[in-house]
Amino acid sequence: MRFFDRLLTVIITATLTSAAWIIVGGGWSPQRQTAQTDRIVSEAAAPVGRSQGSRFMPVPGTWSIPVQGVAAADLVDTFDDRRGDDEERTHEALDIMAPRGTPVLAATDGLVEKLFTSRAGGLTIYTRGADGRTLLYYAHLQSYAPGLAEGQQVRTGQVLGSVGSTGNADAGSPHLHFAILRTSPGAEWWEPARAINPFPVLTGQ
């Protein structure tokens, strides 16, 4: 009986191995299966948005306008505006006008990636969306929210800071400079990334 038990075990093992070999397209590839599984899990756990061709499609209900009291009808699309002394560059962001001190809100769930002061952006915040590929940039702030820190989880609508005119913003026109950047999960906040127009994302157009 022991001989037949061992023989049966060998037959079952061989059958399962052959089936697995056929399923993966002619070769056993645990690495390929793992990579595919990781991709599926990553996409399933990414509520921030998705790409459709060259357009970034936000998941409904996961985004809000990042300045308190501002409605979609109040927004003006400044993404393609020219900037610089000789207008040599494209804005690639949305300027949301509001009185100085108006609360700046998290546009979507994420993680505070970097609190940074720069010559151009003044007091800024970078957050990374839940998908790991979306960076949000908030600039020209007057102040940070009390207790805000790098590595902190933030929720949609949470106060991050307040509208100001730090950096190279016009002191008489306080506003939030808001940008959406698409990158890779392993990329740092300062690495080159593809700018996405926030206007259709925030207005649903």
Structure characterization notes:
With 205 residues, the protein is α+β, with helices and mostly antiparallel strands. The protein contains three helices and 13 strands, in the order ααβββββββββββββα. Strands 5, 6, 7, 8, 9, 10, 11, 12 and 13 form a nine-stranded antiparallel beta sheet that branches. Strands 1-2 form a two-stranded antiparallel ribbon. A two-stranded antiparallel sheet has the order 3-4. The longest helix has 22 residues, at 2-23.
List key phrases describing it.
205 residues; alpha+beta; nine-stranded antiparallel β-sheet; two-stranded antiparallel ribbon; 3 helices
Characterize the overall form. globular
- Beta content: 25-35%
The tally of beta strands, per DSSP, is 13
H-E string:
HHEEEEEEEEEEEEEH
Q: Quote the average pLDDT.
A: 76
Uncertain regions spanning at least 5 consecutive residues? 10-47
Residues in helices, as a percent range: 10-25%
Largest sheet: 9 strands, antiparallel
Class by helix and strand content? alpha+beta
The radius of gyration over CA amounts to 24 Å
- Our measurement of the CA-to-CA distance between the termini, rounded to an integer number of angstroms, reads 72 Å
- Work out the helix count: 3
